[in-house]
Amino acid sequence: TLAPLPGVSDAGKILEVAPGVVLGVVPGKPKSWVYKADLRQGKVLWQKELDGTAFGGVRGFDRRLIRGPDGQVWLYINNRICRINPADGSHREVMEAPPAGNLLFFNKELYIYGGTSLRKISGLFQNISEN
Q1: In sequence order, what are the residues at sequence separation of 6 or more whose Cβ sits closer than 8 angstroms to the Cβ of residue 105?
Q2: Quick one: CA dihedral 129, 66, 64, 105, positive or negative?
Q3: Residue 99 preceded by cis peptide, ω within 30
Q4: Mean pLDDT over residues 56-80, rounded?
Q5: Cα–chain-centroid distance for residue 57?
Q6: Strand (E) positions, the chain?
Q7: pLDDT of 7-61, one tens digit each?
Q8: CA 65-52-115 angle, 5° bins
Q9: What domains are there in the chain, each with its CATH number?
Q10: Please, which residues have CB within 8 angstroms of residue 114's CB and are 6 or more apart in sequence?
């Protein structure tokens, strides 16, 4: 058994970022946590705090981590779309985009969906560094 965050009773949402290696995000208020774990070795590689509420505004059953075409892990933190570098856990705000919704990438375009709407964010990768 692997407990990525000792004392926290939730492993959060996880996404495989390399064979046998996962990145996890655990929401909290006012801070959340991100961690990387090697499932083959059964150990946590690192853990960091995130300022804000991960998946803020996203319905509980819709919360998920999305791998972008840039290799980063994308999610909402508060009402901001952010991306996390799976190598070191550094994160960067991409844009404010309320109301929060689900994220989907198609042909390097970002779509935000939920309820009855589907919003397309064009040219996103022309405006941000892929590192």
Answers
A1: 66, 68, 69, 74, 111
A2: positive
A3: yes
A4: 84
A5: 14
A6: 13-18, 21-26, 31-38, 43-51, 66-67, 73-77, 80-84, 91-96, 102-106, 109-114, 117-121
A7: 888 899 999 999 999 999 999 888 999 999 999 999 999 999 999 988 877 666 5
A8: 50
A9: 13-127 (2.40.10.480)
A10: 58, 59, 62, 99, 100, 101, 102
**Residue 100 confidence (pLDDT):** 73
Separation CA 110–CA 16 (nearest Å): 21
76, 58 in Cβ contact below 8 A? Answer: yes
Q: Beta-carbon neighbour count of residue 51 at 10 Å?
A: 11
Whole-model pTM over 0.90:
no
Amino acid residing at 131: N
For residues 77 and 102, what is the distance between their CA atoms, to the nearest angstrom?
Answer: 12
pLDDT, the chain, mean: 87
